[in-house]
Amino acid sequence: MYHTTNSTAADLKDLIASIHRKSYPACKSLTGSYTFEKFTLTIDHVQGDPFASPSHISIRVPHRFAGFPAEFFDTPWRKTALEDALLRACAAELSKYSFRAKGSGKSGLLATSIPGQEILPRSACQITSHEIILRLEAGFPANGRTIQGQELEKMLLNFIPSCVRAALLYRPEKYAQLQKDIHLADDQHALRQFLTEHHLSAFVADGAILPRESGISQKPMKHAVPFSSPDTLRVSCTLPHHGILTGMGIREGITLIVGGGYHGKSTLLNALETGVYNHISGDGREYVVTDSSALKLRSEDGRSVRNVDISLFIKDLPNKKDTTAFYTEDASGSTSQAAAVMEGMESGSHLFLIDEDTSATNFMMRDELMQKVIHREKEPITPFLERARDLFEQDHISTILVAGSSGAYFYIADTIIQLDHYLPYDITAQALAASRSYPAPAIKAPGYHIGMFHRIPEHKAEHPAQKKHTSRENHLQKIKVYGKDCFLLGKDTIELRYLSQLADCEQTNTLAHLLRYAQTHYFNGVYTLTEIVDFLEDELAKNQFQNICGSRFVPSGLSIPRRQEIFSCFNRYRKL
Predict the structure, then answer these.
(1) Hey, which end of the chain has fewer CB within 10 Å, N or C?
(2) Concatenated DSSP letters for 6-32?
(3) How far apart are CA 330 and CA 303, in angstroms?
């Protein structure tokens, strides 16, 4: 039975009374929509027992009742900022009531997504042209498998309406804080436009707090040294609400970050990695922004590589293996990093972020002595050092590189920043002057070329009998997500632990759903990988999460990933 919107809160109360002390499966009779005074409550899915995954509920509040000023969500970035603010308020309100209804297992649970420091579009709270939608999880109360109707009534008819009134109905006293959130979103959008207009790869504001509280917390470190730009790299922009903002502008080209150990090099690079996302007020990195296509590159021993042209970096292998369509189930450090560069270009990235510590040494550079002993024609690897200038000059792809072991990188850098006691210094002139006293290494290899990216994915069946799956069978493959690091699709594990720019496990969950959806709709040997990702981005833009979920309702727990992470996920799926 599915109740329509003609059902009311009073009907829901009567239904709850009718199943009091019945066996738990009777809860399924509650599935449906119920009209309250100012919102509609929909029970989308009911759990099988009190120990199973929680039930799914959605709340829809028409704008005429919610009452939030229309100017707070009249642009895409404002809408995302308001969704984020409302979700944080809802999560806080729900936590006050969670488990106040008593019972076994998950009885009494009330929860929704809890955002981190980044501001992301999420399924848990969405604003449409006519309503605000909140999605949450609830543990319907029971003792053992006996329904506790009185506790369930408190949850659905008292606790949830109280949360809606507190978080999703506008009151004048909310205006100042919401305006602050919206103004920050405006300023961050303007700052990203400033990057493009002034040919900058990244911007780090004066006064920013870059270090994090700990390795397991993304909150700002207390008593950290505030960032202060070198005078030679300081730029100034005027934001619509903040006004004049100064900070370090990292110009397009090749930027080298150097310095002694533990002086803050990796901390700066990590801030730039996460600068592809907007951050909440008080994070310390609100005004640290990076080219939105920036991609962190690293070696990844053991990953699979599927028909990637890595001949720009690796060719003439002794085993005569074709590197223009390179395939392996177990890549080495150098081949995995070469593949990552080419896959990044295919995804449309215009900025590579590289830390020498997590890179394959033989992929990054070869010193002068090694080049003299092992001649170029005997070495299949052309190091990144010898391709970086052409990547920028011919394909407009910048690089920000953290290095500490070799001065060879000085010869290709446009800007050299030294971190000393967590403060940056522009040492470009000094470093280049010093480099003239040493023999220059080879910094440009011949034969630069970028082929066409025309990879066409097709699902690889394990056995001829498995080639003809129905769409429904593919679409219903089970998904299990293990934090940000990996997920299971059916029996296949997709490892994402080295995608350091995934900000939230909800993005990983969405990647799993996108991969399952693409299996059904696009992995047919017709569309290129780029076309498939374009289709998926269009689908998310038009319908958000509705069609990719494979069910009649959209759950909470989904968040839109970047284009780069969609490519990276598909590139790590071994069945393509």
Answers:
(1) N
(2) T-BHHHHHHHHHHHTTSBGGGGGGG-E
(3) 5
Per-residue DSSP letters for 412-443?
T-SEEEEEETTEEEE-HHHHHHHHTTSPPPP-
**Residue 574 three-state SS:** coil
CA distance 351 to 155: 49
- Look up residue 50 and give its amino acid: P
Q: What tokens does 337 get? A: 């990093």
Q: What is the pTM (predicted TM-score) of this model?
A: 0.95
Q: Which two tokens mark 158? A: 């008292």
Q: Is the separation of the CB atoms in 494 and 569 below 8 Å?
A: yes
Which of 393, 433, 401, 406 lies closest to 417, judged by CA? 401
- The upper half-sphere exposure of residue 303, i.e. CA atoms within 13 Å in the direction of its Cβ, equals 28
* Residue 469 pLDDT greater than 70, yes or no: no
Question: What count of residues does the chain have?
Answer: 576
Q: Is 556 exposed, middle or buried (0-12, 13-18, 19+ CB in 10 A)?
A: buried
Q: Using only C-alpha atoms, what is the Rg of the chain?
A: 27
pLDDT for the residue numbered 5: 55
DSSP state of 257: E
Residue 254, beta-bridge partner list: 399
Phi, psi (degrees; rounded to nearest 5) at 497:
-60, -25
Give the chain's largest Cα–Cα span.
89
Average pLDDT over the chain, rounded to an integer: 94
Q: With beta carbons less than 8 A apart as the criterion, state whether 238 and 320 touch.
A: no
Task: List Cα–Cα distances, 230 to 1, 235, 269, 292, 355, in angstroms.
Answer: 67, 10, 17, 24, 22
Distance CA 418, CA 307 (A): 39
Torsional sign, CA 113, 116, 121, 126: positive
Helix (H, G, I), strand (E, B) or coil at 65: helix
- Output DSSP code: residue 524: B
Distance CA 529, CA 440 (A): 40
Please state, in angstroms and rounded to a whole number, the distance separating the CA atoms of residues 398 and 414.
Answer: 10
pLDDT at 473: 46
- Rounded Cα–Cα distance for residues 229 and 204 (Å): 8
Q: Residue 555's CB: how many other CB atoms inside 10 A?
A: 20
Residues in contact with 520: Cβ distance below 8 Å, sequence separation at least 6, in sequence order: 471, 474, 475
Tokens of 200: 């900058």
Six token digits for residue 244:
């004049």
Give the Cα separation of 327 and 309 in Å (integer). Answer: 9
Summarize pLDDT for 226-283 with one digit per residue, the tens.
Answer: 999 999 999 999 999 999 999 999 999 999 999 999 999 999 999 999 999 999 999 9
